[in-house]
């Protein structure tokens, strides 16, 4: 029997001594400056290859989002949504099925991912505008989105971006949001199982790693996330670590995950 346990709290995972030693060992073989530059320069190619290999089959449809972020369902039929890092549409198409949102903007760094979004049988250009964008670049969003959106979702996307560019991403939101616009955020939290599994030779910088396939991942604390959004003129509504465990005693499987789930709202300017 598989059981899931989940709690939202403001404290990070407590490491065992073994986990602490493993984390320290990640520093034993640092990535060269040459490779750091290469991973940044070729970031789009790595994500395109990811979608070429996995097509639309890697991620499951995210039916959980309306349970966790109720505003995605409540009174949303007349609202507009921007999803940053839409992938192949696993978040937007469950919303489209329910008839939520009069307008959905969906962008991704990978042109191939956007192709998959447009090939979906429910793709309707009168409702959905799907476009490729590097959200770290100025005007990358405002050149397509001409009126402020009501809701922005950022689900497992910011972690894939170089942390030196996080503030640029938040700044690029400002022209396409208004007072009261809600940001829904979910991403990897500090000491998630996937962070603890990285071996030496994968750590780029503090809390920032490269996977075997060249894509990268950052692991957040709630404090730095709060600081990041508040510096861009947003107020924290909620911001917690989600500690989730999937346990199968028969198979001796215990998978501890740590995510961050947060909600921010645009201040009055």
Automatic annotation (TrEMBL):
<protein>
    <submittedName>
        <fullName>Putative methyltransferase-like protein 6</fullName>
    </submittedName>
</protein>
<keyword id="KW-0808">Transferase</keyword>
<dbReference type="InterPro" id="IPR029063">
    <property type="entry name" value="SAM-dependent_MTases_sf"/>
</dbReference>
<comment type="similarity">
    <text>Belongs to the methyltransferase superfamily. METL family.</text>
</comment>
<keyword id="KW-0489">Methyltransferase</keyword>
<dbReference type="GO" id="GO:0008757">
    <property type="term" value="F:S-adenosylmethionine-dependent methyltransferase activity"/>
</dbReference>
<dbReference type="Pfam" id="PF13489">
    <property type="entry name" value="Methyltransf_23"/>
</dbReference>
<dbReference type="InterPro" id="IPR026113">
    <property type="entry name" value="METTL2/6/8-like"/>
</dbReference>
<dbReference type="GO" id="GO:0032259">
    <property type="term" value="P:methylation"/>
</dbReference>
<dbReference type="GO" id="GO:0008173">
    <property type="term" value="F:RNA methyltransferase activity"/>
</dbReference>
């Amino acid at each position: 029997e598989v059981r899931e346990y989940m709690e939202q709290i403001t404290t990070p995972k407590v490491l065992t001594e073994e986990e602490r030693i493993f984390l320290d060992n990640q520093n034993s073989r640092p990535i060269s400056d040459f490779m750091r530059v290469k991973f940044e320069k070729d970031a789009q190619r790595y994500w395109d290859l990811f979608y070429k290999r996995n097509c639309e089959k890697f991620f499951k449809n995210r039916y959980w989002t309306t349970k966790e972020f109720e505003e995605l369902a409540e009174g949303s039929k007349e609202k507009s949504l921007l999803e940053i890092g839409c992938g192949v549409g696993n978040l937007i198409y469950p919303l489209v099925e329910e008839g939520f949102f009069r307008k959905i903007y969906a962008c991704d760094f990978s042109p191939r991912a956007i192709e998959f979004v447009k090939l979906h049988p429910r793709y309707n250009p009168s409702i959905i505008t799907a476009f490729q964008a590097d959200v770290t670049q100025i005007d990358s969003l405002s050149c397509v989105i001409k009126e402020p959106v009501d809701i922005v979702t950022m689900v497992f996307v910011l972690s894939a971006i170089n942390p030196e560019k996080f503030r640029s991403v938040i700044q690029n939101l400002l022209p396409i949001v208004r007072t009261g616009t809600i940001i829904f955020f979910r991403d990897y939290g500090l000491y998630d199982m996937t962070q603890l599994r990285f071996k030496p030779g994968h750590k780029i910088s503090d809390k920032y790693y490269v996977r075997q396939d060249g894509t990268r991942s950052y692991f957040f604390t709630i404090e730095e996330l709060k600081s990041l959004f508040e510096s861009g003129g947003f107020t924290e509504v909620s911001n917690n670590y989600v500690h989730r465990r999937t346990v199968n005693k028969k198979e001796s499987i215990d998978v501890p995950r740590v995510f961050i789930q947060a909600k921010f709202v645009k201040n009055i300017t």
